[in-house]
## 1
Amino acid sequence: MKKFTIGLEIPFLSALCIILCAFSDPESIEQYVGFLQKTLSDHYDSNQENGKIKRYELNITNNGFCRYKRYFNNGKTEYFAFKLSKFRDMDYLGNTTAGKLYLKTKGDDVIVQTYKDRGGDVDSMATQVVIPLKNIEAEDLNLIRDNLERIIKLP
């Protein structure tokens, strides 16, 4: 009788695991993007710009782009954009109160556009985007890195 019971338990448990996996919520880019957008927006520190910035826009899109736009008081606009799949590494320089997040790409993958500058409109490429942050813990930074790395691994 014991052999019969064990013989039934193994297929039953295997079938249960397959059913549970079939109905589990697969991870999607929307989940990662939502977390990144909320975290970066909540911790953005406009005070580090010394009053030079009138406003900013920081967007992480569902199609896998990071877009950061700064509008200066003098009318100048700076725009940075890169595809999240080009993310290579990140650094944070500062402490839990205030610092700068450096999002680095694999190469010159960051589009940089400057409008209404004294030197004219300039288009160039860069290897990183720098975002000022405040009140952020090491755990939050680790979660940012994890979400960026998971986006890279998505098909």
## 2
Amino acid sequence: MSNEKNGWLRESSGVSLEEVNSTIDVRNKKGFWRKLLAFAGPGSLVAVGYVDPGNWATSIAGGARFGYLLLSVILISNLIAVLLQSLSAKLGIVTGKDLAQATSASVGKKMSIFLWIITELAIIATDLAEVIGSAIALNLLFGIPLLAGIAITTLDVLLLLYLQRKGFRIIESIVIVLMATIFIVFVFEVISSKPEVSALFAGFVPRTEIITDPSMLFIALGILGATVMPHNLYLHSSIVQTRNYERTLKGKKEAIKFSLIDSGFSLTVAFLINSAILILGAAAFYGTKLDVTEIEAAYNLLSPTLGVGIASTLFAVALLASGQNSTITGTISGQIVMEGFINLRITPWMRRLITRLLAVIPAFIVTWIAGSKGTGELLLWSQVILSLALPFAVVPLVKFTSDKKKMGEFVNSLPIKILAWTSTVVIIILNVFLIGYIVVTGHDLG
């Protein structure tokens, strides 16, 4: 790794030169499993964004209102996520630039600023979900009022700064432990809910009513926005470079292979968790005539409905783990896109404080005015905002990785190009349809 590259890593991701060289050097690792372990980590950080509190709101609402029908949306979203995240990692490994840097180098200054603003809004929407989710979890577990819980979440900034000083491996390890906690909780919850197995598997088959029913499409787009998150594409293309691999043809091929295994495994775990959340919502609440479109309602009704006393408490513990997990990646992503698009470098603590305050302020105002119902609606809409911002990240990513001049022999093959562009077109068409419907009818799809 060159000094120039080390310097870029230190400035853009907050990882110091010593941390990169001493803890994540993969050049001298021998054997498949040792190398895989050395490369493992970035996939977990990326997968965190796929199981944040925003996913909970959309998946619970989808399961409670439409049964298992939207499991197919989770499956398709996850397949798209695996494809796009693999392209993101490949871009970073091959070019030595993250997606924000590559995009900025290909467009004018005004367009860079525009794309930065769009991406910042998506990151704020992401952070908003984490703020609300953590505040709700604190309220459910300890009775802390929502407004106080929202204020407490600003302290996450100090926690993240402390973790980063300890090294990137520490952050990755904590994320993996929290992900495992969430996974174990939902395995227990799903088993306790006794879902109808035949209907469950049938839910993974796509149905036309998902597109034709606007209210179902709204939730489906929320799931898509909560699963394939734009900031994750910028994040992945950057953090794969925290591995000190040989910058040769062979070294890049090896890095791409292990990165694909790492992210594929982590995103599969995220897929299982997201599916479990929707399955839980469907098995526990669909057809009961209970109004369960908010996380608090799910918590209050879960134990009585399942007949398992600890079910609600475990649900809240997993929610708190999810919120704390996601704040780590959201704030790192914010610094990456700010530096990549507009080359603005500010101190890490200031960057994280700004990002968090931009999420805390609207959450605080909505909670003050509308209470818990307002936060639930804000959580759902934050995920739709992510879905609307997604094409601005996906189009450049697919374009760059399909460019022979930029990627050389690592350019996307024809089948990958077809799949990637098809996914991009589907995302854009669904978003245009949703916006058009809202503008024309003025319906409240929430």
## 3
Amino acid sequence: MQPSSKCIGLIQEFEGCELRAYQDQGGKWTIGYGHTFGVYPGLVITQAQADAFLQSDSQNVAIQIASYVKVPLTQGQFDALTSITFNEGIGRISGSTLMEKLNMGDYQGASGEFARWNLVQGVVDPGLVRRRAAERALFLSADDGSAA
């Protein structure tokens, strides 16, 4: 399965695009749409590079998800998992209750876990609250990929 245009749009909306390197809320050097690999202070990229990083990063996340998810997914479920994993990292998501419930076939229970991922340094972040609600809605949607 590959991230759909809905998934890419969701990531773009919530990550935003910065063409100059900056430190995210967690202090990690970031550029483009949440790209962190090889980013250093003073780095500047073009919009085309930001788009290419997003495509590559989302493909990497898709591969990672495929290695941890043991149950069938709709396109909407896959896209929601891609977005949250893009944001939080596979290391955090792979051992999470969300993934545990999902792999037990408890899709409804897994959907309820999205809202728990709303903290930045121990504080509820309104942007993450909105993002997790959008991801949960996509996870619960009837999107089977037929229109993607």
